[in-house]
Amino acid sequence: MSEFSTQKLRVSYSAKTVIDSMDLNIPREKITTIIGPNAAGKSTLLHAISRLLKPASGQVLLDGKSIHAMRSRDLAKDLGLLPQAPSVPQGIRVAELVARGRHPHHGVFGGWTSDDEEAVAAALLATDTLEIAEENMDELSGGQRQRVWIAMALAQQTDILLLDEPITFLDLKHQVEILNLLRVLNARERKTIVLVIHDVNLAAHYSDHIVALKSGRVFAEGAPEEIVNFENLRVIFEVETIIISHPQTGRPFALPIHQ
Amino acid sequence: MSDYVSEVANATRTLRSWRRSRRARFLGLISVLCFTIACSFLFSLIWGRTFVSLDSLVLMATGAEDQSGSFIVERLRLPRALLCLLVGMSFGMAGAAFQTMLDNPLASPDIIGINAGASAAAVFAIVILSKGGLIVSTYAIIFSLLIATLIYVLSIGKALVSARIILVGIGVAAFLNSAIAYMLSQALVWDLQEAIRWLAGSVNGATYAQAMPVTASLLIFGGFLIGQSRNLEVLRLGEPASVSLGVNLHRSRVLVSVSAVGLIAFATAATGPVSFVAFIAGTMGRTLLGAGRSPIVLSGLIGALLVLSADIIGQNAFSNRYPVGVVTAALGAPFLIYLIIRKSGRGELI
Q: pTM of the prediction?
């Protein structure tokens, strides 16, 4: 059975332990969101399971193998990360940036194949960026840029896609647009998607599984209905809320109590 | 579903034609450069104080000798032109590699102190040790590698920040230049001549023997750089994205740094620091190609053309003959100022 999990994972920056003995199993082919207050270790966790950070101890297992023992290029075919703020090379065009996603599929001198071309085309189509493929990244809006970055991650054709705060700097329209796109990708290509997100209500609305972190530990995990409740939010975020359910979907929706 | 399939097929076709036109442009640029280099090369063989006609050049090439002309061409002009191409290519490739790796045109080895390292070592060998030839070259090579390591160690923090490397490099270069000035002030007259000729960057008295190590370094280090050129382009997306795309950060950076410094060191050992060639060729290659493709090969060719044509100008354009480094410096300094003004116009400081 394919699995993606952490075992007794401990990650620290110099002397400070940010994540401590974490056992986490990420459900495959589902959308998982990681929530928690600032400094709970959300991004650190995402970085550790994408091999950006080396754990102090414990391991991250992908189908039984430790990701830190795999060849960089091989891992990059299974697991892609969209960082929080990747740099845009000056003057790069959308199609050229998305083509970078094919990097792990190439040898040192391997040429560009029709598979590569098709992967890029499909990624542009899926993210609705084909029309702007020849445009300069510098001239796009924040929402368009984020879709292009997702297109790059899609062109990488990995089963698992990790996204570090993909909607933090977008307005509501673009937030919803990106989250809908992720849901379509999950449904159509059965990708395992893990994202860090600040908005508990959007997390509840769009994910199958929520992992709530507090002080470097998993405080609670499960379906949105199990996680988003008065007691959990009071402990995790130190906020008192009224929980209502979304009239369409029945998902929980938290409103802060008026004081 | 078949709708989706045909949509992907259409998009694939569009992308393919775009990519082909971009590649055609790239190949066009390369061909134009190669043609211009070939013309300049021929020109440098036939033109000079003594004119050698194309006819006699053909005779020499086919082995039917023309005594006086063949000495001038085979012993003087040919090795000189070859050395120009080799060092120009080395500087150009190394410049593009550094600028790409640190994602900043100012991160060129002639600005961040690598060339100054080679120069200081050579002046030390000439002035203080009174050595010449191969020993000077060896000092230049070893010391520029040491200086590159020093700059790296001084600027390493939690992350590799290119602005810090550039600033530390400029500081190191300033220190080395004052050390050079001090050594020159202590020099004996005949050593001073030699040291200053070397510092200006010159291909005077070029020999085939000088060209050999530069050729070898181009084959080895240049090959490594071309091998790393795709990783280098990915590195520009930042560390997290590079790791996600399967680039082994540490290995790539070490390989690129060592190769680029190696190219600079061997080229500098042969001709002295031909100023601003790495900087100009690297920047021009990137500007001509845009961000989609690695400029390393193109910048190498631009560097070759730049040094060769600068030497032709230095030899023939004025009543006095000037070393090639004087001509490239005269071109490079205004270019650097222009670039800094343009950058600050965009709100970037470094």
A: 0.89
